[in-house]
Specification:
Elements lengths: L9 E8 L9 H10 L3 E9 L11 H14 L3 E4 L5 H11 L2 E3 L1 H12 L3 H15 L26 H36 L4 E6 L5 H9 L16 E7 L3 E7 L9 H6 L5 H4 L3 E7 L5 H14 L7 E6 L10 E4 L5 E5 L8 H13 L2 E8 L4 H9 L3 E6 L5 E8 H11 L11
Helix pairs in contact: 1-4, 4-5, 5-6
Amino acid sequence: MFDRYKSGEQAVLVHIDFPKEGDREDLHELELLVSSAGVSSLAVVQGSRQAPHPKLFVGTGKAEEIAETVKIHNADVVIFNHQLRPSQERNLERILQCRVLDRTTLILDIFAQRARTHEGKLQVELAQLRHMSTRLIRGWTHLERQKGGVGLRGPGETQLETDRRLLRARLQNIRARLDKVAVQREQGRRARSRNEIPTVSLVGYTNAGKSTLFNRITNSDIYAADQLFATLDPTLRKLELGDVGPVILADTVGFIRHLPHDLVAAFKATLTETREADLQLHVIDVADARLKENIEQVQSVLKEIEADEVPQLLVYNKIDALDDITARIDRDDEGQPIRVWLSAQTGEGCELLSEAISELLAKQMLSETLLLAPQYGRLRSSLFSLSAVSDERFDEQGNWLLDVRLPVVEWNRLIKEFGPEIAGFIVCD
């Protein structure tokens, strides 16, 4: 077997066009990913197929073309703009005689470079190990451990089995540590809920300008750059809005087409800020040619992490890159803000965003008095767990009278859990 290079700074890129929409990838996006990983692209090999080859992903002729390109440019690594099966990676490496990476591994490498906090590093390592668990290959058989006793002599635990056992132990350890982090995040979220501080989460396709917008409206200086996944670790800042008061603004990781499922699963604790937010600001790069596809991909990921029911305000960013577009607020038939057009880079329209957020949050809180019969003790417990009860008393029949204030989205979840009849528990003046 050839030596597996420790570095992969010189790469040949492979992009294959497929007729099926779900299998298509964007070559320009691959080039941005490679640049974000700090890798130099030496050449691009393109082709088209009806379906991936089961053994090599590409055909034998295309594999030979890639091998020749690697030899000409003396490349360290070949990066495919697609997800490869472990067997396909190994077969390609035998032919190309160099390291082969797929799109998922490349994204995981970028995340590993960008992780700064303890939580972020744990999440990336968890995703990498889960991805690696399907790519362990038979290794050093001279390290087999002998078993003793009659009928038990012979090969014992192979290096592959040892690797699997160690990997399982490490995965279990990381999950336990991330569970502790999740508990700490939940405590912080509940503390904000007790103080009745709403949370606004920035979501959007990677490189849509979320961090630049975050810095602009909170006067912060978190890292922002024109590259994919410039922001990885979540950042929270307090924002003062005139009609609403203090608001917590959360900047989270950007999404991308075919975001690795292992990565989504590992970052669920971080993405809780998005799922539990009172309002989502969906930041969209209005100058991107794939605007509609990017919006659909973000909505798909939000659905995957169960955050698709949170109220959303569309923020069309980078209007400075286009002509004849001015900052404005678009409203629906009821006068509710649904879109804000602005430029985070120049600041144009950012005051309109604050205005729209204030309008939406002011109408997203439910402040009512509920009349609960004794059999609805579980609903009462849920309201207290949400820190939504400001006062409690009893009427002459022994029913609870609860003064509650909670986000409308939380109230809608309670209706789904306990049934639509609880909407009739609101006491009318």
